[in-house]
């Protein structure tokens, strides 16, 4: 019994010695519209390229971004697109650090449902705003990786609403403090 007590005491002392960041909650992304367990629903599917969905960006919420976060960005990327480089479906950046959610449809081209100062850039369709999934008929279901990026800058340098996904991605990675992801699937 004494050995067990000594072991428990040592374990508790070890936990107390851990840095606070180790015990902090994890940066987490959630969506009422997307799930890893079910296919992406029609409201979030593209309306174009042979698809007839609602083309509404999903509702997203997140919590516990890393300490020092000065702005946020949201991206949706399909690594399975048959392009050799994937496909950017949505890029929005310069979201204020206190933003913790975006409603369904926030990614419309007007940007009126986004916080003041947020910028959407061109997707691989060549237009600003969300463009939902629409993989080629017969392909296996594609993965759509939605990521919230915590950034160490108030605004991304150089990039604009006309910037490519690759350019935005470069500056997201160069200024990253952390990210939270959710992967959903869609095929037809």
Give the neighbour order of strands across the main sheet. 8-6-5-9-10
- In percent terms, what proportion of residues is strand? 25-35%
- How many beta strands in the DSSP annotation? 10
Low-confidence runs (pLDDT<50, min 5 residues)? 4-22
Give me the number of helical elements.
3
* Helix/strand/pairing category: alpha+beta
Give the SSE layout:
Layout: H1 2-17, H2 20-23, E1 28-30, E2 47-48, E3 51-52, E4 60-63, E5 71-78, E6 87-96, E7 101-102, E8 119-120, E9 142-151, H3 165-174, E10 176-186
Would you mind describing this structure in some detail?
The chain has 188 residues and is an alpha+beta fold. The chain contains 3 helices and 10 strands. The strands form 3 sheets. It has a 5-stranded antiparallel β-sheet. The longest helix has 16 residues, at 2-17. The relative contact order is 0.22.
Give the tags.
alpha+beta; five-stranded antiparallel sheet; three-stranded antiparallel sheet; 188 residues; 3 helices
Structure in a nutshell:
The protein is α+β, with helices and mostly antiparallel strands and 188 residues long.
């Amino acid at each position: 019994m004494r050995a067990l007590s000594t072991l428990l005491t040592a374990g508790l002392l070890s936990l107390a010695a851990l840095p606070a960041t180790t015990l902090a909650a994890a940066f987490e992304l959630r969506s009422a519209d997307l799930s890893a367990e079910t296919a992406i629903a029609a409201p979030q599917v593209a309306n174009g390229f042979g698809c007839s969905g609602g083309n509404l960006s999903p509702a997203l919420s997140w919590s516990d971004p890393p300490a020092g976060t000065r702005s946020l960005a949201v991206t949706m990327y399909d690594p399975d697109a048959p392009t050799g480089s994937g496909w950017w479906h949505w890029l929005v950046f310069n979201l204020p650090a206190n933003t913790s959610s975006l409603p369904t449809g926030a990614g419309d081209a007007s940007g009126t449902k986004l916080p003041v100062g947020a910028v959407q850039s061109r997707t691989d369709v060549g237009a600003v705003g969300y463009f939902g999934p629409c993989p080629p008929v017969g392909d296996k279901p594609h993965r759509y990786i939605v990521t919230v990026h915590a950034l160490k800058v108030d605004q991304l340098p150089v990039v604009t609403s006309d910037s490519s996904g690759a350019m935005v991605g470069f500056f997201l990675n160069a200024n990253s403090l952390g990210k939270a992801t959710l992967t959903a699937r869609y095929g037809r």
